[in-house]
Structures
1.
Amino acid sequence: MAVTGNGGRDAGADAGGRGPLAGLRVVELAGIGPGPFAAMLLADLGADVVRVDRPGGGGLAVDPAYDLTNRGKRSVLVDLKSADGPARVLDLVERADVLVEGFRPGVAERLGVGPAECHARNPKLVYGRMTGWGQEGPLAQTAGHDIAYIAVTGALGMIGNPGEPPAVPANLVGDYAGGSLYLVIGVLAALQHARTTGTGQVVDAAIVDGTAHLTAMIHGMMAAGGWQDRRGANLLDGGCPFYGTYETSDGGYMAVGALEQQFYDTFVDLLGITDRAPARKDIARWGELREVVAARFRTRTREEWTAVFEGTDACVAPVLSLREAPHHPHLAARGTFTDFGGMVQPAPAPRFSATPAAVTGGPAQPGAHTESVAADWDVPALLPKDA
């Protein structure tokens, strides 16, 4: 497997890394899910991310050695409920560009590290808040997870086969797409504003808002009459026979996305059904077309069909598992995955011509970098009193 990497570096060894965000200082108040992933993305792009972990840990009890969302960061231990805990965090905030937190609304304020306290110490600070429901609204104080957030936005209801329960897309659509990525976009936009005006602000990144925003094109299609508000009946939700997945003879699957006419023509030709395929624009015959396509795919293995379609404009690809993906020739050639510290993992994305990013450290172990952070950020109060 041609993955790039460096297995010999210490976890969290660098004070930031290479990349377009080198020199940016980020304080992350430890949490779970989309907050840590957003901070990981900033670290991937070169920011010096200091994660403030709580003594005794918390969250979902994932072994910190394998929590890749903490790669490339440094960690200090601070008990925010102790008498001097908030002051230690505010000392870091004074020297930071960005803070990321994922508490329920009002918790950071009660702990003494809310926006008012932070901006009093650092008016230029970008204060990034990551929640599911947002900072206000009837459900703002209610617990939830990805599946509930994407459920109320209509996104979950679009995914799956008609007549079956909606399919759960792991936590990719809500936590990471609608949450983490929107938080990063908001933080970078607010950072530009702060550097232009000298004034920081609060970024309220709610998963419900981001996920709803992701459905913009679908809402436009629905308004135009080109999308039915039900599963498995549309061009991009599996309802279309030339945009979906098909089982092969060995139990594998092939993904088909031959939407444009020229790609569809190549698809049916290579599949060998040109003389049997009903007119693709005749929606009334989509069921018949699907049966013809499905029957043909069942005649060969996934590997055999991959060989048929690889490198063509048919827009067909094998459906790979997580363990198989790094071995795909195209991904291997691009170095889409990397091996760092003995763990195969996605490499930083996107890519930059002048300031390339790289994984610079493994998952930060809680409290492992107190001394280096205290020195680099000039916050001696982080050190134990007997040090």
2.
Amino acid sequence: MENSNPSIETLVRLRKELHKHPEVSGKEKQTAKRVLSFLENYPPDELITGVGTTGVVAIYKGKKNGKTVLFRCELDALPIEETNRFEHRSLIDGVSHKCGHDGHMAILCGLAAKLHQNKPDSGTVILLFQPAEEDGSGAQKVFSDTKFTLIQPDYVFALHNLPGFPMHQIVVKNETFTCAVNSIIIKLKGKTAHAGEPERGINPTLAIAAIINQFNATIQTDITKENYCQITPIYTKIGKKAYGVAAGAGEIHFTVRSDSNLQMRKIEIALENAARSIAKEYQLKCKTQWTQSFQANENDKTAVAFIKKAAEINGFELFEKEKPFTWGEDFGLFTQHYPGAMFGLGAGVNTAALHNPDYDFPDEIIATGVAVFHHISKQITNAH
């Protein structure tokens, strides 16, 4: 690899190499090593490794003091078997880059090269290669890491590729960009009995049915309204496959979505109370826990204006979305702590959907992502 600005072919090669060797959340050791090996050719002023387990932070400093801007991408892949047969297909059974994090890393590496070649006149640009986005734990792990506490950016940015949108289109939205998502596990304990004498036991089945019905009544699928709430049953288990035994325990899991963090807190309390109340009515012990929590990405208007200007200067088509995306993205934790924004990068109208086994990140949009990020960094670090 040459020590000048990398050609787009170099970034494509890196992307395909990352695609071939995917790693699931929290296990991204080799992925981080590949990123570090690329960065050796475009060394930052400061490099921090092992952030939030496997994360990497590269810092490029200007000659003078000024604003600090952070750009973030994700290291992890998904536990999905790839169905593509191309040469760079995943070499790991049951794991593949089906969200395009391989492409997001290539974009941030392209930005690293630009910053190495042309240091900011003033200010600081921080690149964060974050672990474990897919299970919602990575952002929190980064924030809990003392290595990260010294980093105090003025603005934070991230992008996500968007299949179904025209290639190179920049998708922006003020306020909520992606929804708050949380998952609840409800465990109910009663008492097993002989299936011929069910009255001698306490069976959780009717309680689970009542919880499903009550949660269903809470759903409000119109995202244009303030009380948007999507609840999806994910998994349930009642008793055992022993036909002489009436079930004495069960559990049910749901994912819950809201378009604001404040509204999500209210929904969480209401659902917990409903589950406990129904359990009590059926004389069951009830335990609830939340898992894989994603804060809503609440975009700052000034940050969105930087994105719009970068798209405009580079001649990219801009699309202002009216409603938030209903998927979760743990970058929401960053936009809770600092002014910032996430934006979408069109991946092509006919590109397979995210998390589909035949999805592959389109290399044509790597340069687009680099150009937008780079222009945002210049606007912020050059501001006086």
3.
Amino acid sequence: MKRIWTRWLPAAAVPAAIAVGVLAGGAVAETPPPPATPQQVLALAAGHAAQQFSGVVEEKADLGLPSIPSQALAPATSSSSLGSEASILELLTTPHTARVYADGPTKLRVQIMDELAERDAVRNGNDVWTFDSKANAATHATLPATAPHENATPSAPPITPDQLAQRFLAAADSTTSITLGPSASLAGHGAYTLVLSPKSAGTLVASVHIFVEAKTGFPLGVDVYAKDQATPAFHSAFTQLDLAAPAASVFAFTPPPGATVKQEQAPTEKTARPAAPAKPAAAGKGWDAIVTLPASSVPAGLLDAPLVKQLATPVAGGRALSSSLVNVLVTNDGRILAGAVPLSALEAAAK
């Protein structure tokens, strides 16, 4: 699961742009025994093999950004290359509940439950579907048998606790202090609490709490705390979880009567792995690193998009999108700088 969903978190959403806090539990879970060291819990999480499960995920954010309802993004997501950026902004500013299902690397389903609507992303073997109930519109593609798993999945699911946890754990290096917090209960499962705390004073991130299922090592939830905030700035957690294979019928998607169906061109073996874009330049290391995207690599039309102009405020040398966990600076010459650092650090790096 951790490799399958990684492509859904865009590079612009740096590790700081993920978290939130109220831990919802289901049935009362047995409190796990205290492990000897944080390293034991790290090994448990790194070695988990849970690829079959179903559950409900809740995501909430308190990033200091205005709420962006999905209907406000409909024009962009339906006809613009900026759709993915708009979707990520929506996910980071609007609470979401999603049903998720997985049965190995080629059977996945995500149902994002909007108000009086639903959005689905389904992969069943080589068949890939997306569906928006509000627009009553679906897209379908048939993947080649040789398509790699990580590049052949639906394009708009929510960010799952497992994916977030693996991203943070992979990035935890010498710049991070790792300790154990109090045991917890999420979705009826007992969990250890790993606490990742940046050693740098130059980052906006105070700590990241990862809740690791005590028996399997499956990450149940992630809370990210910003400095000077008592509640998580971003929270993603299972509120219901069954670590068993879902019914096969869950992945058999058929568009409802009257739905508009768009058949997308199936990728060939040569196009299944698209050429990687130029890597952005990175300054610094760890939590206070700053990523710079040159103007030549910025998607066409992004800087002039109404959504970007609405959210980014004028600053010296460009426009800035600021939150409690991450800042983004768009310079007048078209560059984009981002990091989990104060805006002043981005402005200094842009000179």
4.
Amino acid sequence: MPIAVYVLGLAVFAQGTSEFMLSGLVSGIAADLDVPLSAAGLLTSAFAVGMVVGAPLMALSSRTWPRRRALLLFLAMFVAVHVVGALTPSYGVLLATRFVGALANAGFWAVALTTAVSMVPDRLKGRAAAVVVGGVTIACVVGVPAGAVLGERWGWRSAFWAVAIVSLPAVLAVLRSIPGGRGTDTGAAPVPVRDELRALTGPRLRPVLLTMALVQGATFCTFSYLEPLLTRETGLGAGWVPVSLALFGAGSFAGVTVAGRFADARPVAVVAAGMTALALGWAALALAAGRPALALALIPLLGMLAFGTGTALITRVLGLASGAPTLAGAFSTTAFNLGATVGPWAGGLALDAGFGYRAPVWVSALLMVLALLVAATTAKGRRSRAGERRPSAVQRSARGRL
């Protein structure tokens, strides 16, 4: 595996830390900037919206640039907005930095995914994607708890400074290790945007992208409300929350690693098995939430299944979207973050409706059932179309006589 692929994973680690670290900083931000907790929570929403909008927008704007230039620009933007965020006394400015930071993060993700898989042979594409996605899982294990500790000891601004500082080695590493050419460095002209969009919105890719959004929606629906589930339903103390988050992150890292090894050979089988196991797993967690030992055992297993399946889906999209070398990574990023936006919203609706703290987990199970239905319907339609194209025995006999 080229060292450049691991460099991209390092940069994604820093950016993933920024995306998720606010879960442990909102109280400090609200108190320091004199805003309600709900306003501080909007900082997370602003980042998610920026990721959804930014992935295709940034990929389109940078599609004719050398990829090293694009990656460096997005990293520089990311570092700059975190410095501004760490210094500003204004909530409005901080909100704007979260949105702009998400645009930079989305652009980097889109270019990084396509860059990573373009630098390896077909048999290693899944593993290359897993290395990049693995940066997010390491952020969940190390970066997010570290940000929470920094925020508790030295204030929330220290966490923003830490993200900016950790990103600087990635800037230097990208400068030294990423090739500077456009696209796949073949010298060919870029694929027209209309052709890329046609490839990505075709009947083969639409259901895969929808499935990815549903799987990620299920993941982040429960992940966003894990703290109240554990402390108010399972009966664990607050000290178990960072332990549980680390367990989920460790499982996620294991899932990404395993999926990277098997997704290239049998992507459809990996996705189908992962989605089925997730539907059963989220339902099992909802039923077992009152038993601490069982709940804690299920958390890393579900992290492994969720991110392993997500990695296999990303590999599947990149494999099917050979006609969209610029936008394939962007659409994958958008689907991923659309799920991360809608899932917590749906879980919050279930909580507000008074269904209890297990409700978001049941919503996750429901989203997985929907994902399975989409996959099953797509497979059935594909078989039907294949049957229509295949000549019948009578037709073959008639052709033989002719």
